[in-house]
Amino acid sequence: MPVDTASVEVTGWGRTAPTTAARLVRPRSYEEAADAVLDCATPGARGGIARGLGRAYGDAAQNAGGCVLDMTGLDRVRTIDARDGVVVCDAGVSLHRLMQVLLPLGWFVPVTPGTRYVTVGGAIGADIHGKNHHVSGSFSRHVVSLDLLTADGEVRTVPAGTDLFDATAGGMGLTGVILSATVRLLPVETSLMSVDTERAADLDDLMDRLVATDHRYRYSVAWIDLLARGAATGRAVLTRGEHAPLDALGARARREPLAFRPGRLPAAPGFVPEGLLGRASVGLFNALWYRKAPRARTGELQRLSAFFHPLDGVPHWNRVYGRGGFVQYQFVVGYGQEEALRRIVGRISRRGCPSFLAVLKRFGDGDPGWLSFPVPGWTLALDVPAGLPGLGAFLDELDEEVVAAGGRVYLAKDSRLRPDLLAAMYPRLADFRALRAELDPRGVFTSDLSRRLSL
């Protein structure tokens, strides 16, 4: 057995899923990980699930009464091909660490979500996406192969394009423990971004701008004011960017064009009064944020951290929602379902959901993962305080609208979806269940999420 073992209480980043007690095991070698998995398979052990840096919003990396494998002890960057742009690393390596190592060599991670504090294993298990999905797809599209520890204690090398790979990409850790991965990288000349910003007057204006010009940019995202009503419903600040070329930098910046120095602000306080983020305070914030944004600005140079990960500068920012936590709700509906998107945005606006973190993006081609979230279409993500009266019933109603439009919600952020809707959202669910039953007949790999949704 691995020596690093402790009984802990675990919850998701949103702090809404019930905190559950589990035995935490922190392997520091592949052999220790295999021993831990075999121990999880013993009668009465209640299985196990891998966990990275704990940024899944819901209960995907929890396992009440069972084992949780903390994979952050496996954090070696094994090899870097600086000529062709390929890295081989352990699953516990964070995207932050990869940026520190790779940027000085002129390479960047191919896909990053809104935080760099996720592990490579978590990036594959949730098949994360970023602001560049319309161009680059999800993270797993750039993974050449991975080493997977399965329920029998064996390590399998799984190449992209196989059924096991496609079940693992977005499979929420339920096919096995990812130990390492080979990932293709993106070449860059600098560690700065060239950013264009503009305001959109309403949702239709925003969608028109995205459709007309998204193809010009590698990265694109819009912040939406979901408390705006009437003619201003869906008003937004649209931000697009490209990696800045060397010739865009001034003389001083050219001395260290690939320097990576993300800023950091004081941590959010441990105690925040309940109700701080109400309709009035969030409405005021949203109005000020919209008005302070430029009507149109091009070519602004920003740090990578400011463009991709502004919230990473505030450690434990999830505390600002108070002890009750928050729900992050993200869905996608396909192109041709714009009226459904308008209805949902209108309902959220009329409901007065106090969300100051709401973003709209466009997805490109779907990804091969059987439970991968992105499909071609529009995706909206919003954070809402969990204590909002009637929130559960309201989100259930939105789920029904999403399903009726042929869309789906993101499992890595979910903490409350009804299991009866899952099959309609994910057509390859039956295939996933069948492969999992064959690969892991005793259900060694399990989580609070998998039990809640019967995955």
What key phrases describe this protein's structure?
455 residues; globular; alpha+beta; 5-stranded antiparallel β-sheet; 19 strands; 8-stranded antiparallel β-sheet
How is this fold's topology laid out?
Elements lengths: L4 E6 L9 E6 L4 H11 L7 E4 L15 E4 L6 E5 L4 E5 L4 H8 L4 E2 L11 H6 L7 H4 L6 E7 L5 E5 L3 H6 L8 E8 L1 E2 L4 E9 L2 H11 L5 E6 L11 E8 L7 H4 L24 H14 L3 E8 H5 L17 E9 L3 H14 L6 E6 L13 E9 L5 H14 L3 E2 L12 H4 L3 H11 L8 H6 L2
Parallel strand pairs: 2-4, 3-4
Antiparallel strand pairs: 1-2, 5-6, 6-10, 7-11, 8-9, 8-10, 12-14, 12-15, 13-14, 13-17, 16-18, 16-19, 17-18
In total, the number of strands is: 19
Low-confidence parts: none
Beta-strand portion reads 15-25%
Q: Share of helix among residues?
A: 25-40%
The major β-sheet equals: 8 strands, antiparallel
Distance between the termini: 28 Å
Report mean pLDDT, rounded to a whole number.
Answer: 94
Instruction: Specify Rg, calculated over alpha carbons.
Output: 21 Å
Q: Helix segment count?
A: 14
Strand arrangement within the widest β-sheet reads 15-12-14-13-17-18-16-19
Which structural category do the helix and sheet elements fall into? Answer: alpha+beta
Shape: globular
Task: Describe what this molecule looks like in 3D.
With 455 residues, the protein is of the alpha+beta class. The chain is 26% helix and 24% strand. The protein is built from 14 helices and 19 strands. The protein has helices spanning 30-40, 95-102, 120-125, 133-136, 163-168, 203-213, 251-254, 279-292, 304-308, 338-351, 391-404, 422-425, 429-439, 448-453, and strands at residues 5-10, 20-25, 48-51, 67-70, 77-81, 86-90, 107-108, 143-149, 155-159, 177-184, 186-187, 192-200, 219-224, 236-243, 296-303, 326-334, 358-363, 377-385, 408-409. The strands form 4 sheets. It has an 8-stranded antiparallel sheet with strand order 15-12-14-13-17-18-16-19. Strand 5 (77-81) and strand 6 form a beta hairpin. The radius of gyration is 21 Å and the shape is globular.
